[in-house]
Amino acid sequence: MGRVFVAGSINMDVVATAERHPKIGETVAGREVLYFPGGKGANQAVAAAKLGAPTTLIGRLGTDAFGRELRAFLASQSVDLSFVQDTAAAHSGTAIITLANADNTIVVVPGANGLTRPADVTAPALAKGDIAVSQFEIPQPAITAFFRHARAAGATTILNPAPARTFEARLLGLVDILVLNETELGFLANTALRDSDDPARFVEAARSLQTGDQAICITLGRRGVIALIAGAPLLVPGRSVEAVDTTGAGDCFVGALASQLAQGVSMPDALGYANAAASICVQRMGAAPSMPTAAEVAAILTSRPSEAREP
Ligand code: RIB
After folding, report:
1. I need a surface site. Which of 48, 162, 285, 309 has the fewest CB within 10 A?
2. Quick check: CB of 80 below 6 Å from ligand 1?
3. Mean pLDDT score of the chain, rounded to an integer?
4. Of all atoms in ligand 1, which is nearest to the CA of residue 39?
5. So what's the pLDDT on residue 28?
C-alpha cells in the first residue's frame, strides 16, 4: 500500500452559528461559538488516515494554545506529525466561520501556514505508489516544490486549488489529478458556472484547463461529481442526505480519494467512495472531527452501491 502525504494548512476553526448570515454592514444575533480543528490540509489528512491510508501531514503551527490543541487532536486521529513544525514567528492558522442553514462563510488568517517553505515539504522521502496532496492555503512555491519532489519519486499528485486563486502554468503541469468545485473551476476557466448547469458545461470548462491526460474531478455537492478521466467524462450521482454543516466536505472528498488511490483502488471506484464519504461528513458539525471512518463508508456503500455512468 502507498502512503498519503498532505502538504497543507492546519487551522483552528472558530464557528459562530446563527439563524441566517448577516448582510454586509448588518449584525445578527448568534446562537453559539464552537471550536473545531480544521484547515484544508489537516482535514484532508484526517480523512485519509481514518479511511485506512498511512498518512503524513506536512505543515506549520504556532507555539500557542490553538497549536497545542491542534497537534493533540491530529495525533489522536493517527496522522503522522513528524513533519509538522512549531514556529514562534506566527500564530496558528485560524478560520473565522459563520454557519447558518448548513452553509458557511469563511475568513482564513494563515498565520504559521503562510510560513511553510519549500524545504519543509521536500523533507519527507516519498516513493512510487504514494499520493501527494496539496491545496492553496500554503504558499505556492512550497506546493510547486512538493509536487516536483513527489513526481521525481514516482508518486501521484493531487491538487485541490482551494480557495481559488490564479496559479502558474508550471504548477498545473505537475498535477496528475485536479479536484475542485464549480466556483473554483469557473474562476480558473474564466467562465461563470453554477452547480445547476448542464454537465456538458463543466466538461467543456474542465477540458479548457486540462494539460495532457490529467484527471479533473468537479465536486457538485448534492449533484455528485463529474470527472474527466483519460479524456472521458464520468458522473457519480450525489447521495441525498440532510446536511447540517458542509464545512470540510470537499476536504473529506479529497482525503478519501487519496486514501483509496494509495490502496490501489481504480479511479472510478475511488470517486464513488469519496462521494459516499463526503455525504457522511455533511451530516455532522465541524470540519476535521466530521470525517467518517472506513466502517461508516463501507456501511452506506453496502446499503446503496455507487453507480458511476456517463453524464
Ligand atoms: O475547507 C474547509 C476549511 O477551510 C476549514 O476547516 C477552514 O479552516 C478553512 O481552511
Report:
1. 309
2. no
3. 96
4. 8
5. 96
DSSP 171-213: HHTT-SEEEEEHHHHHHHHTS---TTS-HHHHHHHHHHH--TT
Cβ of 40 closer than 6 Å to ligand 1, yes or no, is yes
Looking from the CA of residue 250, the nearest atom of ligand 1 is 1
Write out pLDDT tens, residues 3-62.
Answer: 999 999 999 999 999 999 999 999 999 999 999 999 999 999 999 999 999 999 999 999
Instruction: Say what angle helices 249-262 and 40-50 make with each other, to 10 degrees.
Output: 50
Q: CA–CA separation, 49 vs 56, rounded Å?
A: 9
- The pTM assigned to this predicted structure is 0.97
Phi, psi (rounded to 5 degrees) for 64: -110, 180
Q: Which of 224, 218, 172, 171 is nearest to 193 (CA)?
A: 218
Residue 169 has pLDDT above 90, yes or no: no
Active-site residue flag, 251: yes
Q: Which atom of ligand 1 is nearest to the CA of 43?
A: 6
Per-residue confidence (pLDDT) for residue 196, from 0 to 100 = 85
Rounded Cα distance between 166 and 149, Å, is 22
Mean pLDDT of 284-290: 98
- Identify whether the C-beta of residue 49 lies closer than 8 Å to the C-beta of residue 37: no
Higher per-residue confidence, 118 vs 213: 118
The answer, yes or no, to whether any atom of ligand 1 lies below 6 A from the CB of 95, is: yes
Question: Tens of pLDDT along 9-21?
Answer: 999 999 999 999 9
